[in-house]
Amino acid sequence: MEERKDILWRVYLIYFLICLFGVAIISKVFIIQFSEGDKWRAQAERFSSKVFEIEAVRGNIYDVNGSLLATSLPYFEVGMDVNTEAITKEIFNSNVDSLSICLADLFKDKSWKQYRKELVKARRNGDRWIVLQRNVSYTDLQKMKKFPILRRGKNRGGFVYLQTNKRERPFQFLAARTIGKLNENGTGKSYGLEAAFDSILVGTTGERTMQKIAGGVWRPINSDNEIEPKDGSDIVTTIDINVQDVAENSLKNCLRKHGAGHGCLVLMEVKTGEVKAIANLTRNNKDTSEYLENFNYAVGGGTVPGSTFKLPSLVAAMEDYDLSLNEVVDIGEGICYYSNVPVRDSHHPEKSKVTVQEIFEQSSNVGVTKIITRYYSKDPKKFIDRLYKMGLGVPMNISIPGEAKPYLKNVDDKSWSKISLPWISYGYESRITPLQILNFYAAIANDGKMMRPYFVKEVKKRGKTIKEYKPEIINEAVCSKKTVDKARKMMEGVVLNGTAKSLKASNYQIAGKTGTAQIGMVNGKMTYQASFVGYFPAENPKYACIVVISAPSGDAYYGGAVAGPVFKDVADKVYSTSLEIHKEINAVQPKYALKAPQVKQGNKEALETVLNGLHVRMNIQDERAEWVTASNSDSLSVRLSTRTTEEKLKAGIVPDMTGMTAQDALYLLENHGIRVKIIGNGAVTSQSIEAGKAFVKGTQIILQLS
């Protein structure tokens, strides 16, 4: 009996505890359902839905003439709710075949049977979302809106699409590095105008609530966005895509011809600083004949300037010591030593005593170092300070990111030595970007006023200008007007009589400086950097341009022969399309020309006929001469000097044919038994047999024309 009571007591206790536990569960259910219901429903809503940002349409980038350089094109992710209540079994079954055929015909990525299989499977499994296609263009989206079932819309046809924007450049690689891109995926870096003006282009993002459904897929809850995105503003650049095209093609052809590693080119207006074209090309490692825009050498590539730095050096001496262009310097045999380290001229000088003008025209390293050490050896800091004062040692703070900081060695530098002053004077122991060098030459062309290079003219919103960017002055005067006049005369002489004679133009005059710099040893062979920087037209400068070619692999590596032709291509294009440069053809002309044209050497009688017809004054040195050399004695007349070409040929000596037309060269040489092979057209720039060498009849000579 006692044992039975004990068992019952235990059963009742367990029963009571179970009931108590049940009451607790039921109580908690009531509390969750009625007391805390709102809280947990909100929590569930947060887990199943989420607010997504809607990307605004990024602003466009235009060239100076309104051509589209970069734009955002809309692309769509298109999906379908195959189990929406409005799509009945009858509607689905009667239209699924035709819908599948339409999808297969449009996208051609699957057969219509595959599309049908996926749609039927999703319908059978109760899926509320199936992705039909990603990256659908706007045109294709409009076609899809007419497809069976989908034409019924979102609510009745389950048709849903989400817009994304993809950045496109209509001109592909033209100015690609300058236009730039954003680091949207966390790989690489942001650069160019896209990065510099991101806050203007980006616009304001919108918001859209999305719901998470089976398979982890997010779909929009409402047909409209909660907050509509606001499109970004457009920017109008200073780039002229027509000139840019010529610049890149000419640069690419030059790099291919000479097998160079990379090169860059910049064209800018001297009076405003507007950059009209900028090209940067690097050899593709996978295809060595192809060149790509992988790095902005013009802005971010600090490099040894070489002989192009001789202009700042001589300008410094003119400014500090009133250096005269007629001052004579003894350059000896074209070699001198500083602390037993030689400085050599690349060409053997015709004479040992030359003027400053001739030193610059022939790019004499020895001459420049002797001038600078003559004036600054006791106070080299004065030389460096003058260069900094002219703006060569500090960044220009341009609008696009990545400008390399210039390196100009100071006397306080630990590496300063006894050879630093002469080496800096002709372009070594320094690192300066091509754009920084160009800006100094542009300042000389602009009567000494240095402008800040810039790339964007204005910001527009829906076609209306909301902000304009004006030219900025960096330095009111890098030097005096007197020094500017001397510097410009030196640069004009380089093209008329010096290392860039091949750049003589018939319609306009170019002024500038060639540069050839040693940049290192590769496989036991010295590599070079060829450059040309200058401006045009020389008498009234409008544009300045620099071309830099790194590591040409052929025998030609001098600036005038390698970089000069690229400069000429761009200058010709700009001159031919810029009406403001040309003189009015209906303007009343005086009897004699206001400025004498550039004249090639040749037959005196023929030259007299042409110059008389143009009413150009002539200064004839020898009336009996048959062949003459032409040069501008001043801006109003042409000097016709005796040329000993025919006398040398009669004596069996090869003459200097440089500057002569192909017609005259053929006539003279072949009449004296020399076989002639001509390459190119224009005037003679080089010859296979050096002037002064003896020849016999039947000898062949190759003439390279400009």
Provide structural commentary.
- With 706 residues, this protein is α+β, with helices and mostly antiparallel strands.
- The protein folds into five domains: 2-35; 52-237, Penicillin-binding protein 2a (Domain 2) (Alpha-Beta Complex); 242-580, 3-Layer(aba) Sandwich (Beta-lactamase), CATH 3.40.710; 589-643, no CATH class; 651-706, 2-Layer Sandwich (Trypsin Inhibitor V, Chain A).
- Helix content is 35%, strand content 25%.
- It is built from 23 helices and 31 strands.
- Strands 2, 3, 4, 5, 8, 19 and 20 form a seven-stranded mixed beta sheet that branches. A six-stranded antiparallel beta sheet has the order 11-10-9-24-23-22, with helices on both faces. Strands 25-27-28-26 form a four-stranded mixed beta sheet, covered by helices on one side.
- Helix 10 (241-258) packs antiparallel against helix 20 (564-577).
- The termini are far apart.
Topology:
Blueprint: H1 2-35, H2 37-48, E1 49-54, E2 61-62, E3 68-80, H3 89-107, H4 112-125, E4 130-137, H5 138-144, H6 153-157, E5 159-168, H7 176-179, H8 192-196, H9 198-201, E6 206-213, E7 217-220, E8 234-237, H10 241-258, E9 262-269, E10 275-283, E11 291-292, H11 297-300, H12 310-321, E12 328-330, E13 335-338, E14 341-344, E15 353-355, H13 356-361, H14 365-376, H15 380-389, E16 407-408, H16 420-425, E17 430-431, H17 434-445, E18 450-451, E19 456-461, E20 464-468, E21 473-475, H18 481-497, E22 511-522, E23 525-536, E24 543-550, H19 559-562, H20 564-577, E25 602-603, H21 604-613, E26 617-620, E27 627-632, E28 637-642, H22 645-650, H23 662-671, E29 675-679, E30 684-687, E31 700-705
Parallel strand pairs: 2-8, 26-28, 29-31
Antiparallel strand pairs: 1-6, 2-3, 3-4, 3-5, 6-7, 8-19, 9-10, 9-24, 10-11, 12-15, 13-14, 16-17, 18-21, 19-20, 22-23, 23-24, 25-27, 27-28, 30-31
